[in-house]
Protein 1
Amino acid sequence: MLSDLRPHERQVYSQFGEDGVLEHIFECIGTTNRRFVEFGAKDGVSLSNTANLRLHHGWTGLLMDAAASRSDELVSHAFIDAENVNALFAKHGVPERFDLLSIDIDGNDYWVWKAIDLFTPRVVVIEYNIFFQLDDCRTMPYDAQHVWQEGSCYHGASLAALRKLGHEKGYALVHTDAWAPNAFFVLRSELPADWQDRPTEELTDWGRFHEPPGTEGRPWTRV
């Protein structure tokens, strides 16, 4: 079922193998309303984790990005933070329970996911910072105004921090991309009763670093 998703990695529009992984996850657990939310969504197609589902599998949903044009009909312009994320979902008519949430905002990813408490996605794919050891639970401190500086390793949260948060929110970590820093979580209620969590070292090839390079003196928060 979901015990080894590496063979299913396949790129259609996504950065690496996310498209194939998501296809297989939903083949295994089924779909409900085929609704998604993705932020930051860029242009909604290139490097998107939801374009394949939208364009080839009949899905619909909400795309948001801080860099989107305010006249863009596909991607809504929004600067997302922990204070406004639930209100943005409600404003755009996101159902309380939906199939997929994709988070890639290069900064407050941990805090925004933590803040989502009025909505329940069945699957979450979220970017993590690969430059931490596998048991290091750290994230950037929350800064609602944070904007990622291209090329900087000062962003996001460690995989351990996100796995801990996912557990608190009722999710199991089922996969990370071989070549991209994306982690895939599925609601435990959607998994078989005999589901057994796999050790993190079996789920990622990253985690061999001690500290994100070039971030000496920058603050991190242990969670």
Protein 2
Amino acid sequence: MPTLTDALSAERFDTYLNWAGGDQALAERLYTYNVQLSAALYGPLHMQEVALRNMTDKVLIQRHGLNWFDNPAVLTTGYQAGCIAKARQTLQQAGKAVTRSQIIAELNFGFWSSLFGRQAHHLWQTLRPIFQAKGVQRGTIAQELRELRLLRNRIAHYEPIIALPLAQRYASITTVTGWLSPSAAAWVANYSTWPALYPAVPILVPDPASGALVVAPAAIPFLPA
């Protein structure tokens, strides 16, 4: 009978097996926990991304008009222009109408994050008011979004996330969402399953002898049976 390792591939499962010190059953529990935590983060990340997209679009419309994404003075990098072109192409290939709202919906988190990077500094004075936080800096926003984008991508590609500083990442999600929309932050607080799943202890810690990451004994009771 095929095992879970066969289904996942040995190479992918070896990461968990190494963390579990070769214990197959513990490695499977770790893998399952990684899946559960990834699922628990999806909703909060979704809300944060949607809030960022819609608030950003709103202020750019006010400053540059409905089709701000076609203005070369707004989108100044090849990456950003490429995202717009790709969105149009994707819609055309899917047989969908290439409307403004469809283009906006098709743009990924990487695109929206890029509007806060160093190369988009010219947009900051326009975008700054969407964040309801006194004294927040563009660089802070850019760094927060960069880390959340990397987390989102790892989840989307079914990669391990339990070695990341997840308490810090979740705090970042809720903080940025709160800056964008208190209502969106309240939704996350009401419906997120994360607090019930994630322990107030690290899941992985360095082994004292080798320095390699291993399962923290204090985290084992929180792992699914």
Protein 3
Amino acid sequence: MLSSRERVLTALEHEEPDRVPLDLGGSPTTGMHVSTVYALRQALRLDPPETPVKVVEPFQMLGEIAPDLQEALGVDVVGLSSKTNFFGFKNEDWKPWRLFDGTPVLVPGKFNTEPNDDGSIYMYPQGDKSAAPCARMPRGGFYFDALDRQIRPVDWDNLDVKDNLEEFGPISSEELEFFRREAERLYQETDKAILANFGGTGFGDIALVPALHLKEPKGIRGVKEWYMCHVRRPGFILKVFEAQCEIGLDNLRKLYKVVKDRVTVVFITGTDFGTQRGPIMSIATYRKLYKPFHKRINDWIHENTMWRTFIHSCGSIEPLIPEFIDAG
């Protein structure tokens, strides 16, 4: 029988493993809602009733797929992610909380919410309730929706690329050490394929454009404004992506030096390119604005590491799949 790591690698080499590999919880796009994790753990009798489950990704309210649940389900992949989440605070100092449906959970210490008059719940960047809220969970809801973060009106005549780059920058020595230590631990203590979520290469990911972790984001942060720029100001989008790509490549070089080939797969982008009806943009737009940067990131990885690359997209994207393949 193959180990989990061998099973994933075999499949990625386009060979048939002993069974289909399974990823559950390895990335923000392959997770499970915390209420479902709780129900599953109860059904498998892994916990006594009312045992809370950690919320490891609070934007989508994803639950921790702990080692005992991984083993019970035959999960082959384990995630390597930053401790800092979408809202800009760390997953630490856990405290009890309950969902609208009564599910008991544990949330990070800076998971600070405020009820609204309509019964919804507001979330705040970096857990700072003195700032304007950045997300809202509707009454009876299960996860947060981003609020309109166009806090400052866009000065269309004086757009500054730097304003849409304030969330990107050189990876810190603290983060590098964390990834080094965690990659080594996961490689030594598990037999699972490691899926790394380094961040920084999700060009135009609409979950990231609003910058939920920034208290007063500058630049183009509204969903409508961002997508209109693809048509009206593609040159601006290209300049943002060019700068983001250089930062991302530099960070990947630093990361590879510390995690080496312990990592099996790297999450490149979760940008959504489709709706239920079809692609959200034309093939020509993808080729002009996105493909050059996907290709640069993928080419560097394939030429310099043994990592495999992972891309997520929601929606009906069949016409774009050949383009994704060509981009590496």
